Amino acid sequence: MSGVNFDITATKIAEQRLSESERSFRRLADAMPQIVWTSNADGDAEYCNRQWYAYTGSSTIQEISQFVEPDDWETAGREWRKALESQSPFTCELRLKRASDNSYRWHLSRALPIRGEDGRILQWCGTSTDIDDYKKAQAQVQSLNRNLERLVEERSAALAESELRYRLLVEGVKDYAIFLINAQGLVKSWNRGAEQLMGYQSLAIVGQHFSTFYSPADVKAGAPQESLRVAVAEGRSYHEGWRLRQDGGEFWAGVVTTPLFDSAGQLRGYHIPKSFAT
Q: How far apart, in whole angstroms, are the C-alpha atoms of residue 97 and residue 66?
């Protein structure tokens, strides 16, 4: 008899290290809350951690399609083939069937290619994370946003219609001067009654300070500012006195000034609904 002995110590050590590394990977994978899986370089499933078996109730890693919502299977397969062909990371959202209640829950599946020293893909390592609660919350937020947008649109339309009715009503009044001034006292709107009573066309007076209608003596005495101060302090002010037309003529007028505030309580301007000759 003749024989040959070979020293395979290095090979055995390498095998032991590989086996220990594989056991360490599986212990780590089983400790993770997500489904962890691997496939070979061609994309065929090789391993799933215990979360897969607990979630699906399956005893195998084959026939994965029976656990994927049918409407998502085609999309997932297309994205998986694309990743294999381009050798790029795989990402896809799909629904997986849960054994405990036979419900389909959304999962985010991701996989990265694992390459050898020569750059060739050795296998794929992936995870599937349950994002169903997030998807439902996202859907609720989107629904709330849509409802809010619809409400804002409805309120905006109602406001626009209300403003239009108000403007048509105010502009149609000829017997009284009705106009708005901003918080700084500049004229912002001007109706026909104001044109007839004071002589100013809208283009000529809008943007001018309302003290233009007061006599120089009243302006010097601070009468315009006092009327605004009283309006803010008391909710409105009423004053009778002489006012000036554009041509310099005077007329006796009774003026009601009402402050306008926004929803935050900020002063936005003043409404002067009546300025009429007596």
A: 8
How much is the pTM? 0.52
Half-sphere exposure of residue 261, counting CA atoms within 13 Å on the CB side? 9
Residue ranges covered by each domain of the chain:
9-137, 165-277
Q: 165-277 — its CATH code?
A: 3.30.450.20
Q: pLDDT tens for residues 157-182?
A: 776 766 666 565 556 556 677 888 89
CA distance 182 to 159: 19
pLDDT tens digits for range 180-190: 889 999 998 88
DSSP letter for each residue of 49-114: -HHHHHHH--S-SS-GGGGB-HHHHHHHHHHHHHHHHHT--EEEEEEEE-TTT--EEEEEEEEEEE
- Closest C-alpha among 240, 241, 253, 245 to residue 196: 245
239: pLDDT confidence band, cut at 50, 70 and 90? confident
DSSP letters for 240-255: EEEEE-TTS-EEEEEE
Most confidently modeled of 58-72, 146-160, 211-225?
211-225
Q: pLDDT tens, 5-45? A: 666 666 666 556 656 666 766 787 788 888 999 999 999 98
Please provide residue 129's backbone torsions phi and psi, each rounded to the nearest 5 degrees. -110, 130
CATH number for the domain running over 9-137: 3.30.450.20
Domains 9-137 and 165-277 share a fold: yes
Q: With beta carbons less than 8 A apart as the criterion, state whether 125 and 111 touch.
A: yes
Give the 3-state DSSP-derived string for 5-46, with helices as H, strands as E and coil as C: CCCCHHHHHHHHHHHHHHHHHHHHHHHCCCEEEEEECCCCEE
* CB-based burial label for 44 (10 Å; 0-12, 13-18, 19+): exposed
